[in-house]
Amino acid sequence: MIKPFDFYFDFISPYSFLAHKEIIKIERKNSIKIKYKPILLGGLHNLHGIKAPAFIPAKAKHMIRDCKLIAEKNRIKFKFNSYFPIKSLNLMRGVFVAEEDNYKSNYIDSIFNSIWQDGLNMNDENVVQKVLKNLNINPKTFYLRSASSSIKDTLRKKTNEAYEKGIFGAPSFVSNNKIFWGQDRLEFAIIESSK
After folding, report:
1. Would the pLDDT of 82 be above 90?
2. Can you give the pTM of this predicted structure?
């Protein structure tokens, strides 16, 4: 039996999106809820003093192809976003607003889909507002709440906690206090959670 485990993610990460889509399948099949842990990936990288593969041209070229291969293998609709990199700070803060109002799952899925399936420019505030309205979220209220000091502090705190655990990238999974980094390590997190 699979027990719930932690999934550290940021919307900016296409590999987090691919892991998210696989997690949805796992949750349905096993009637469980994986614990989504939002972090700010750029902040996490800064804490570790590392550069993301997406910003190293040779790696970025292969990353796009790699994501497409994984998506095809797992039958996931995927489109590398032409507006990449997406500034995810406000979107990630929004996860905590969504959590307070009990629409976290819908929010996460919708934002991931908007970026990595629909290819929307989520750096454009007007586009984000349309996505929020489609979720029946009042954009003005949403922005005010996500800009509050308590929400800002929460995202910073969660990112720092991830750093202190030794997490350095997204997606990462923590199962039985063991860290598994990368979308292709999801199966190992599942095996560990079954022990």
Report:
1. yes
2. 0.94
In a domain, 37, yes or no: yes
Alpha carbons 66 and 14: distance in angstroms, whole number: 10
Report if residue 1 sits inside a domain. no
* Residue 103 belongs to domain spanning: 6-193
CATH of the domain at 128: 3.40.30.10
Which residues, including other chains, have CB under 8 Å from residue 92's CB and lie 6 or more apart? 10, 11, 38, 39, 40, 155
Whether 187 is covered by a domain: the verdict is: yes
Tokens of 181: 């980094």
**How many domains are contained in the chain?**
1
* pLDDT tens track for 36-63: 999 999 999 999 998 887 778 888 888 9
Determine contact, residues 181/172, Cβ cutoff 8 Å: yes
Dump the DSSP string for 104-139: HHHHHHHHHHHHHTS---TTSHHHHHHHHHHTT--H
Do you find a cis peptide bond into 38, omega within 30 degrees of 0?
no
Take residue 173 and report the two structure tokens written for it.
């999974």
